[in-house]
Amino acid sequence: MMKEAPEVSNVRIMKKMEGKLVVIHEEADAKKSRAEKLLTKIDASPDNRRETITDEERVMFRMIGLKMKVYLQLGTRGVFDGVIENMHLHWRHREVVKLITREKTVAIVEEIAGLLEYKSGGILVAIDRVPKGFSLIYYRGKSYRWPIALRLCVQHPCNNMWKE
After folding, report:
1. Is the dihedral of CA 163, 91, 143, 159 positive or negative?
2. Which helix (H) or strand (E) holds 140?
3. 3 state DSSP class of 147
4. Interatomic CA distance for residues 73 and 131, integer angstroms
5. pLDDT for res 152
6. CATH of span 55-155
7. What range(s) does the CRM domain occupy (predicted)?
8. Comparing 4 with 10, which gets the higher pLDDT?
9. Strands 96-101 and 72-74
10. pLDDT at 151 over 60
């Protein structure tokens, strides 16, 4: 009788654990199906397609960017709203914008380049070493439209010193 009591309690514990596992599996399946539905919506949306450029265009835009005398200086504060706004202001009149950064290492420059590409919506053409530091060249894209938020800031001045 004494030996049977621990076995019975072990069986109860096992049944409770199995019940909990069934509930966890059901919740996981529900989350998985919901995530798959959301992924199909994301893949179907036309806005998610990134614009690409060919190698010939990349070489051409790189040469144009390196010859440009007009450039934006990326200061010690790094990427902030003023830099993005100035990029868009340059893109009003030109297809390519050239940024110069004085960072020393290539890894930091590549990180900054990726962040700028994401925040500005432009296409990174090239990262080149120049005597002043590194040159980042961005193309605005074939179907470029000036951002609405920037239009509002030009009409009513906003504070562009924010670093996100």
Report:
1. positive
2. none
3. coil
4. 14
5. 56
6. 3.30.110.60
7. 51-151
8. 10
9. parallel
10. no
